[in-house]
Amino acid sequence: MIVVGVVFSSGGQLELLNPHGNELAWNDRVICETARGEEYGRVVQPAHEPTGKLPERVHRVIRKATPEDDVRRRQQRERAAEVRREFRRLVVQRYPLVKVNGAEMPFDGRRVVVGYTSEERVDLVPVAQDLSRRIGLRVEARQMGPRDGARITGGYGLCGDVLCCTRFPANERRVTLRMAKDQELPVNPGRVTGLCGRLRCCLAFEHPVYRSFRDRAPAVGRSVTTPEGRGVVRSFQVPADAVLVRLDDDREVSVRLDDLSDVQRG
User: Fold this and answer.
1) Once rounded to an integer, what is the mean pLDDT over residues 144-152?
2) pTM above 0.70?
3) Strand order through the sheet with 223-226
4) CATH number assigned to the domain with residue range 70-147, chosen from the 4 options 3.10.580.10, 3.90.79.10, 3.40.50.300, 3.30.300.20
């Protein structure tokens, strides 16, 4: 079966859908059938054969989005932002420690879902019902975890770039401290935790690269043969897929793994 990968919000969960005969390319905007009803999404994986197990039901892409759909979507986002501001005003009056992170209106336009985070379990359904009566539109309040809260709010990480959870489709792997150790990062909260207070998503995104590198690279201290002569591995340069080698003449050179023609095992 051929599928395409679609996300329905920045950093949202990747969903595999049946293209249903539509010719789709990366970044195409599409109207899709989902378990939540019709949704406006963006293609982030062109047509391909899935390698893993598919869900029991694979929903379909109905059609490509039209310019009119794009305008409607912008209007819905503006309306959702208005609802979020009003919802936040009501929440602050009653629950000052609750953070209202964002709001989303599904493409069918029947409701607005407002997301919030709190250190404790807080039921904001009465607030949502109050606001629904005021504006004549169904409002749902949904408590979310700190990761989703950070994703919706957005911001910049320690790297100086946009948060991974906002910029890229959600990572399905659980982020663990082992990933930080494999990447030789200092295991202290200031280096391995993100703005959400949880382990940084980039640890999981980058971990396969480090694992692959270590499976192929000679250990530090190992004698190797390079195009410039014999030497000893001094350190790793993972992003460059290379190692730093001190040659027998005391020069230090960066050598790609593919150029290490011989690895001495002794």
Assistant:
1) 87
2) yes
3) 252-256, 242-247, 229-237, 223-226, 262-263
4) 3.30.300.20
